[in-house]
Amino acid sequence: MANILVTQSGMKHSIGMMRSLARQGHAVYGLINPGEKQPLSKYSRYCRQVYNVHQEDEEAFVKDIFRLLEKYTFDVLVPIGFPVTHFVAKHQIEISQYAKIVVPNIESEEIACDKFNIQKIAMNVGVPTPKTFLIKNTEDIADAIKEVGLPIIIKGRRESGKGIVATANSKVEAFHQFYSLVEKYDLAQDDYPIVQEFIHGWGCGFFAIYEQGECKRIFMHRRIREYPPTGGVSCCACSFNDPHLELYGRKLLDALHWNGVAMAEFRYDESKHDYSLIEVNAKFWGSLELALAAGADFPADYVKIATGQELDYTSEYKMTTYQWLLSGDFLHGLKRPSAIPFIIMTAFNPRVHKDFLGIDDPFVLIIRCLKLLRDSILVIFRLR
To answer: How far is residue 345's CA from residue 354's CA, in Å, rounded to a whole number?
Structure first.
């Protein structure tokens, strides 16, 4: 069994990963940011120890991680979110001298994380995309609205881990949202948000792990509810399978000669009866627990590839549903009361996997409940 170090271990899907790996006999350790409040891994019985490492700034991260890797022995390093995955991909040659990693080459990773350039790659390989526009000034916003109509999506051009995204339903709102994002995140002109056509339909994802350009496992899910309800992370989702979506996802990642995990986010366009690529996330995804519940064990695959074990291709997994009641679905109901009956039915459905059933990890459950109470108060008083 291996000593495994998991970055950003305070995130909800980090806990799912750590539980899965620990139950398989691995010794699992976590990284948290200095001063991070109530990181879930610190209270999890599946995490042996957490270490303080700056994970938001590249220079600080590189300095801290090498100090840690030189002091302790870890067989495998698993980067979870952004920007750490980017830092690890950028410094993979140096890091791999201390711990095994499975990440894409930096050129492929940077293309995937550029939400404008990945659309061009998609079009080149025959994957449908929404109309997407680079914005340099107010006139560009007006031209984009004129071509695609309203509503539109305004979002950060590059993955940043900050959730730079807004929806605009009018021209005035579009201008306001655009410049609010620029000001809030202090974006230079080269990093101005892009404008994307809104696709009327439902959200879904294609997930895969690759080994040096060769696909080893796939998984697909469909979003049932999100938080925020206007577009955010999955708070209730189900696994599904569509060869058409698989074709699109694999075309895209094959073109990038991918290595490691990735999620290609799509929306099903109900008017065209086809999928449309929204963006690619070059990292582990927030709904990882659904894949694990369905039998798609991406963390175990990652460790096997990292440690040189032979891994056969598989596309098999179960059809199931996962509800993150404590991590979004309850808040979805507060924001959208019409969904409350469906949220309650899901919560009492014995066939649905849920995040509040982790009684074998009681302190994590308590922390999640406390965070939900705090977030609920903020939503009720319109502070969030």
So the answer is: 12
